Structures are given as C-alpha cells and as structure tokens.
Amino acid sequence: MTEKTLRKGNEALAEGAIRAGARFFAGYPITPQNEVPEYMSAYMADAGGAFVQAESEVAAINMVYGAASTGTRSMTSSSSPGISLKQEGITYLASADLPCLIVNVMRGGPGLGSISGSQGDYFQATRGGGNGDYHVIVLAPNSVEELGNFPKMGFELAEKYRMPCMILADGILGQMMESMSFNFDPIDPNKLGKFDWAVDIHKNGRKKNNVFSYKGDNLIPDVVERAKRYGLIEKTEARWEEREAEDCDVLLVAYGLSSRACLEAVNKAKEEGLKVGLFRPITLWPFPSKRLAELAAKAKGVLSVEQSLGQLVQDVKLAVNGKTPVYLNAYPAGGQPDGNSILAAVRSILNGGKEGLFDLQEHAAGFSFECKRDTSLGMQGDLKGGK
Amino acid sequence: MTIIAKKPASLTDLPMHYCPGCGHGIVHRLMGETFDELKIADRVIGVAPVGCAVFADSYFACDMVQGAHGRGPAIATGIKRSKPEAIVFSYQGDGDLASIGMAEIVHAAVRSENITVIFINNAIYGMTGGQMAPTTLVGQVATTAPKGRDPKLQGWPINMCEMLAQITGAKYLERVAVDSPQNVMKAKKAIKKAFENQVNGVGFSMVEVLSQCPTNWYASVPQALEFVRTKMMPQYPLGVFKDEGGK
Amino acid sequence: MPRIEVDANKCKACYLCVNACPKKCLGKSKTISKKGYFPAEMQHPENCIGCAMCYMMCPDIAITVIKD
Q1: With a CB-CB cutoff of 8 Å, which residues 173-232 of chain B face chain C?
Q2: Is this complex scored with an ipTM above 0.90?
Q3: A132 neighbourhood in chain B, CB within 8 Å
Q4: Contact C17, C57 (CB under 8 A)
Q5: pLDDT of residue B246
Q6: Which chains contact A through at least 3 pairs of Cβ atoms less than 8 Å apart?
Q7: Would you list the domain boundaries of chain C?
Q8: What is the pTM of this model?
Q9: Both A232 and A249 in a single domain?
C-alpha cells in the first residue's frame, strides 16, 4: 500500500507492472500508449529487467513469447491497430500455454482510426482476434488506480492458468491523471519460484523443456485440456462491480471509462427519482454472465452503454437470454458518453421513446445520426445516436 | 574399442523426418557436436522455425521453443534478454529468414543481439512443397515460378550475408555449404565459431548454409549436390563476409 | 581395425555416405529396411580407414565409426 499520488494512467500502469514483477517489456511506439514504453525505457533496467524497443508490433509480441518461455514476467503494450498486428503472437502464446501481459490502450477504429479513446476492440479482445480456438483473460480497469493495480492481478491469473492476460484500457484512461495508490508492495520476481515448464539453463540433468505451439501429433487433447481450463476460469474468475443494481428498473451495463459516465447517470437518476443501477464487468472474459442474468431478471430493461457499435451488448444479450429487453446506447469511433446522454436513453426505455437507443436495423429504416465534424481540428466531434 | 565418430550427446535419439539427402540433418549434427565440444549443452536454448525444421525442437536435446514463421530472431531476443547467461540460437530457413522474417533478422543484427543464427539456404520453400523463395535462383523452376524465376516479374535472389554485412551490429557472417566432406568440415568450423562468439559476448553471428533439397529441386541426391556447386555457389559465394569476433 | 555401423532404422538411403567414401567401402543393401529403404551398408570392411567421411555426410546421423 502506498500513499496517494497523482499519476497519469499509462504511467501508473507501467509502474504497477514493474512493481508486479514485470522484468521484460517489448513495445513499439503508438499513440495513445507511448508513456508505457517511455516509462519502461527509463525504469525497467533499474529494476533488473530488460526493455526492447522492437522493430514492429509483430516482433515485440514475439519477443514477449521468447521472454515468457523462460518464465519471466513479460509484457507488451500497444493500441488498437498495433494489437491487430500482435494477434499472430497472441495466438502463439495461447497455443504454447505461456503467461504474459498484453495491454491495449484502445483508440478509435477500424483501420488507422483516431487517437481518442474508444472501446471498439471488445470483440477482438474477448473473441480471440487471432486464429484458432483460444481465449485470453481480459481485465477492464476504469480508473488510474485500477490501471496501476491490475498488472499484478493480470500476471497472477496468467500464471495460474498458463495463458495470456490482456488489460483493455482506452486512450482517455491512459492519458488522464488521477490520484491513486498501489495496494501491494513491490514484488521481487526472483522470490516467486520457478516454473517447471520454462526453458532455462538446466544444470542438474533435468528433462529437456520444449515450448510448443504445435506438438506435431493429435491436436485435439491439447485443445480439450485448454478448454477445461477455460471452463474453470469462467466458473471461478469472473469479476464485476455493482452499484444500485439489486433494485432498479433500468440496469446499465458498461465497462472501463464508459462505466464512469454511467455512475454519473446513476447518481443523476437518483435525483430525478428514477431507479437506475450499474453492472460493471471487470473481467470481460470470463464475462460475469451468471450474476448479470440474476440482476437483469429483476429489471424492466437492460442498457449496454459502450464506446463501440454494439459489441458488449452481444455478451449482455447472451447472459440475459431474452428474459429482459436489452438495449444499446452506443458511442463508436471515439465518441464519449456522459450522464445526460445515457439518461436520455434510460428515459426512452421507461417511456417507450427512441432517443439514445441504437438499432442498426432501425437505422437502416431511417434512424439518423447527428454527426458534427470539427474541420478546424480535422477530428471527429460528437456522434450521437437517436432522434 | 574406441568410438571415432557417433551421434553427439546434444542431439536426441529420434529419427529425423527430413527427406533423404537433405542438408538439415548434417547441420543439426554439426550444431550438436559444437554444443558437446564447447560444453554448453546445459546452457543452450534454441528457437525452431516454421518450415522443414519445424520439428527441430525434438532433435536437439537442449530446451527448445517453437516460434512463429520468421520471428526466430525476435523470440531469441526475448529469451536472451531474459536469460543473458543462456546460449540462444535461432534456426531458420530462407523463406523464414529472408522473406517473412526480414525485419526480425535485420533488426536483431542492428541491435547486435548476442545470439547465433543458423540460416539454411536451399533456394526453395521446402515444407510447403517447392514454391519460389527469395533465394530462388534466376531461371530456377518452382511451383510458383513454373517457367523459372524471371527477374522482370519476380526480381533477383537475395544475398543475406552480403546484405547484413552492411550493418554495424552484425559481427560475424559466413557462408558455407554441406555438399562435400571438405565443406562440411568448414561448415563445422563456422558454426563452432558462431557459438564461441556468443560465449565470448561478441554479438550477432550468423552462418548461412547452402543446403541441398533433392525433393523440391526434382533432383537425385548427386544431382542436388551438383546444383549446389554449379548453380548456387556462383550466386552465393562461400566465405567470410564479416568477422569482428576478436575486436 | 576401423569399422562402421549403419543404423538401418535411421538410414534413408540417400547414399551420400557411399559417394563420400574415398575407399568405396560402402554400398547399397539388398535387404529392405523397416522404413522401406535399401539402407547403406559396409561391403568392403577390409578397405575402411576410419576417416569418418561417411559419418560426416550422413544427414540422418545413422553412422557410428569405431576403431577396435
């Protein structure tokens, strides 16, 4: 536990990772996560670790693959297009059952996209992104405090289940400054004990260790064994936060930064006498479906508030399973929610309106966007759904 | 009874899957002998490529990591930086190293990673069935160059040793062949030196081995050896391209 | 007296050893191996000088050179 200090999100994350025992970092410059490799380049060597500025995202994740093979707490960070490039390495890490930490400080997409915060990589993070049947554990912090403290949880989960763990943050979370403290003492990775599967110097004539992606024989037993681990994780490792969620008419579901805007909406709703609650998944995979289903059963409507075009809402619908109507309040490609815009959607649910409720099919039938482009900045302004 | 020559202890007893006459096995043996002679077997961590040598991890008795296509030098970087006392090698073919992994090999040399790269150049994609490689010779027939490599369409073969020699961080570059006992002996010397360099902290070392691929050259084994000598060597002259081991 | 042993289960009959032998000691076996090859075999042991050139060229490390 440390005293509260003012830190930038990306720097809190980098410091948190070093405190959590990260001793290898490879990365490549991309906005809005540059403070992470910058911080690592300054402090990793002092901690006794290695920092490499890689020639590409592809090389960076493969360096992590190599370092993770040795049992070293290894990580990389990037932002959306860079994470796309890393998918080759991520699926290899998953197939070789290697623990590591991958940080995605999301920006708008698709393609090059904008550099403002977004949540458009939800599918990529939770559905895989690379080839084959695999998962990565996905943690979604919503504050600088959590950014600083999640790397420890990430490494521990990754090592417990021998698989990559991703911290899914976004550009605003990475760039903003908040007062925060670390809730754990710095970890000396040399005291953590060694993994019996890691490649290493091996004096005592132990059996040779191979880190395989594909063993060259029947793949099915390996995939099934991994699936059993995935099942255990889904059963035991889901994490979430609830606010006023037990007894509400409209249950908001949001993760990361948009959950902060939802909190504002929950508080404003209280003033208006509306019963609005918040369910915030902290792990996006495993998704806390069971608890969400219990809470949703008591509500009149469930509203997914997300900075993407209907990605989180799919997991919400799968969890709710048709028992309660599920709506979408979407802010894609760099759009930002606020308490008022969320409340407008809540009122629509309660009063049978349309404002703030995003529906792709209705949109095709005449639903209109109000899209302002601030040409002086050459950047995108508000993007609001609804009429 | 004295054993004059037998399988080195640094290799496992598993029969290799390579085609008859292929050069991979010879190079594996030279590496195994090197590990035995330098007494580094318990420190070696290797990276197996994607390509014909994808199962090389089963043949070396040391710890091995199976990497993604072309990424060997990046993976080796991660291993070496995490375990500086380990002796780390990346074993790669020509498609792996000179095509999809071009950035990784160049930048491992730029950073002068203290690793050893063994580069098998057989001028063809072997595992996938004989497609044109970046090292395929002008006029050489491949399944994706059915009329032979035409420089107007597919450019010219790439000479990796010569190219990497321009990079300050590349400390030792030699091209050898395994077409005859004499050349195998020279190849052994080069491979041994490339690992000695790593032990001595010299920096990036690579040995390029011209290797025969009778299967995908549609050649008998003697014809394949002849191809190495008469066709490959003029394009890829043997020799030392850089040696800053002592400096 | 130098001699060699060929592991017929490893030999893939590329005959690189047969061609490498300066004394032409080696030849093709008439018996088919478990792998389905006609492995290389020692046919003129009296000429073997233990130079190990066969070993050096064998890609399957199937040859052991011994001096009794």
Answers
A1: 180-181, 184-185, 214, 221-222
A2: yes
A3: none
A4: yes
A5: 67
A6: B
A7: 2-67
A8: 0.94
A9: no
Which residue in C13, C19, C64 is closest to B20 by CB distance?
A: C13
Residue ranges covered by each domain of chain B: 24-131+159-243
Across chain B, the runs of DSSP E, i.e. the strands, are 2-5, 44-48, 63-66, 87-93, 116-121, 170-177, 204-210, 239-243
Confidence of residue A362 (pLDDT cuts 50, 70, 90): low
- Closest residue of B to A87, CA-based? B68
Range of the domain at A287: 241-384
CATH of domain B24-131+159-243: 3.40.50.970
Topology of domain C2-67 in CATH is Alpha-Beta Plaits (3.30.70)
Q: Where are the alpha helices (DSSP H) in chain A?
A: 9-19, 35-43, 57-69, 80-95, 122-127, 144-161, 171-175, 220-236, 256-272, 289-297, 312-320, 339-351, 360-364
Q: State the amino acid at position A113 in one-letter form.
A: G
- Residue A72 touches partner B, C-beta closer than 8 Å: yes
Q: Does B75 touch chain A (CB under 8 A)?
A: yes
- Domain boundary residue, one of A167, A202, A236: A236
- Which residues of C lie inside 8 Å of B (Cβ-Cβ)? 2, 9-10, 12-16, 19-20, 37, 50, 52-53, 55-61, 63-68
- Count of the separate structural domains present in chain A: 2
